[in-house]
Design a protein that fits this description.
The structure holds 2 protein chains of 2 kinds. Chain A is an alpha+beta fold. Helix content of chain A is about 50%, strand content about 15%. Classes of the chains: A alpha+beta, B alpha+beta.
Amino acid sequence: MSEEVIDTIKEQIRENPILLYMKGSPNAPQCGFSAQTVQCLIACGERFAYVDILSNPEIRAELPGFANWPTFPQLYVQGELVGGCDIVTEMYASGELEPLIKEAATSPE
Amino acid sequence: MSVEQQIVSKLDARFGLDHLDVVNESGNHNVPANSETHFKVVMVAKEFEGKRLIARHRMVHEVLAEELQRPVHALALHTYTDAEWKDRFGDVPMSPPCVGGGSD
């Protein structure tokens, strides 16, 4: 496992309170699961950071092992893995996602 | 044994299942015909009681670790307890449509 890449991942997760690892970008997602997750996040009305794993193959290769999570997208809120598309969608539908995102967006760094 | 059968038998062996539905959705994606790359799993199990979704998904990922290495590329997971399942009246979310990206 490349330590440099893991350090980059840790830094990204630490410095971005709402961070989505996805395929493509929020404007041009390259996978239906990423697209649906972006829709849920946009609906929460807060800015979020993203990393396109298709243009960062080293992150794509290392993140599943680091996170112990095999698939993409992966949503991190305040340093913690929330889950993938199914979990984010379910949390959005149940009303749990929005307060979580709002709190992360307004919490002091 | 097909990957689909393998998934069924591994989940069945590991969990006390009240319901299991494994659907090969590869045909909806940008992969060769008859692929076994994209699956949707709906399961109802007592072990999910008192566990958050992320913990439930991790339990399933662990059982299917080998398949998730290869060839399974996408695994839509819908995990319920018996009570949650009854509340839904069997309604399961649809998987999002493919937007055309390749499987790499």
